[in-house]
Design goal:
30% helix, GNAT family N-acetyltransferase, GNAT_dom, Acyl_CoA_acyltransferase
């Protein structure tokens, strides 16, 4: 199976929110503080879709996962305690969530590979991302996929671990 990575549509919003709700519950069950303060929420999903930031990973009509992908659009990254690996354009992604039925099947890695392809098709070789200090799953993925820890950024008033991956130019 090679999943499709595509822009989310308005009619996807309910299913996206369902995936995010379950991910929020998993974060809580894992003892993580991430996503435990009313964010993300259905309004964020709607905004992502309206701005063209929302992307889904799908197997036909079945939604596998969701994320928001932007170019040069994370103001908090300008004030890093540390240093980014590159200057210039970057792709940033947030709100990565995989549907329960697809957990443990490498779909978060697949989504991140798709985001890398997205960056390269936009002639961008830098991907920046952040996560909570206690999100063990994402921290493991960043390590596994060759991301470099660059320092801390503050998002929503809380420190977050910031990472960058520099892609080989094709």
């Amino acid at each position: 199976m090679t999943p499709e990575f595509r822009k989310a549509k308005e009619q996807d919003a309910t299913q996206i929110w369902s995936i995010l709700e379950k991910a929020i519950a998993r974060r809580k069950a894992d003892g993580s503080e991430q996503w435990q303060n009313g964010y993300p929420n259905p309004e964020i999903v709607e905004s992502d879709i309206n701005k063209g930031y929302g992307y889904i990973l799908a197997d036909g009509e079945t939604m596998i996962g969701y994320c928001a992908v932007m170019i040069n659009d994370e103001p908090a990254y300008a004030d890093i305690k540390g240093q980014w690996l590159t200057d210039g354009d970057f792709v940033v992604y947030h709100r990565v969530a995989i549907a329960e039925a697809y957990l443990g099947k490498g779909m978060a890695q697949e989504m991140m590979r798709q985001i890398e392809n997205y960056a390269l098709t936009h002639h961008i070789s830098s991907i920046r991302v952040d996560t909570n200090f206690d999100n063990k799953g994402m921290l493991h993925l960043f390590d596994k996929l060759g991301y470099t820890y660059c320092g801390e950024v503050i998002l929503a008033g809380a420190p977050r671990k910031a990472y960058e991956k520099v892609l080989p130019k094709k």
